[in-house]
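ok so I'm stuck.
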Amino acid sequence: MTDTPPAAGSGTITIGGDLSVNRLGFGAMRITGRGIWGPPADHDEAVRVLRRAVELGVDFIDTADSYGPDVSEELIAEALAPYPDGLVIATKGGLVRPGPNNWKPDGRPKHLREACEGSLARLGLEQIPVYQFHRVDPKVPLEDSVGELVALRDEGKIRHIGLSNVDPDEIERASALTPIVSVQNRYNPSDRASDAVVELAEAQGFAFIPWAPVGGYQPGGGGGLAAVARRRGVSPVQVAIAWQLARSPQMVPIPGTSSVAHLEENVAAAAIELSDDDLATLG
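replied:
not stuck anymore, here's the structure
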């Protein structure tokens, strides 16, 4: 009998009715350079992180064409292709990168088509399992942007469509055009502005993928995390991930890192079962 990989402790979710994955995924933004720009400082370590994530049972990897740009997708293909059975790669389009730490929306259908086809080429895929519209462009009607993703899906280039950085009204508008299988918003113990979207995920059955799942620029920040971490003998970051998993069965946290050591610590959080007292402390 083989040992169960650690990420399996997070439980599973089925995305889009046919993609079953462990609920603890990996976000591949941090394997790029400073400012999410250019190549990583340690290329070989980035490759090791991706391969180790799969060894630990992570079978959902989230990326975007804007991470690098292009760098994250290229590293994923280098490290993991040919991809193991069951590995789901989700990528995104709709943000362009004029420079480090600079993000601008571009929801034009022409751009989204070019972005999707570029991701297909870099990832070495014939079809992207989950393609997410990265951010609504105020200059382009949401229906035009999502409509182009529907066309790409109908052409077989996308399997399922997701959204990112959206509110309930935008989800409803997109859902009128096509099934939405995932929503990716900022969410962590100290930023719960998307609580209504989490509740909508439970009602409608789509996956909620929190970005900055451990607090973004203040990892492990937030009320109660340090207290619970001391009580449980784990790190505040691990508590934050465990809280996400306990928050909703639709939750798919994607903590990212450029370090194998940090990756292993993050995945170990799948084994942490928070008590009622822990959850009460976290609020």
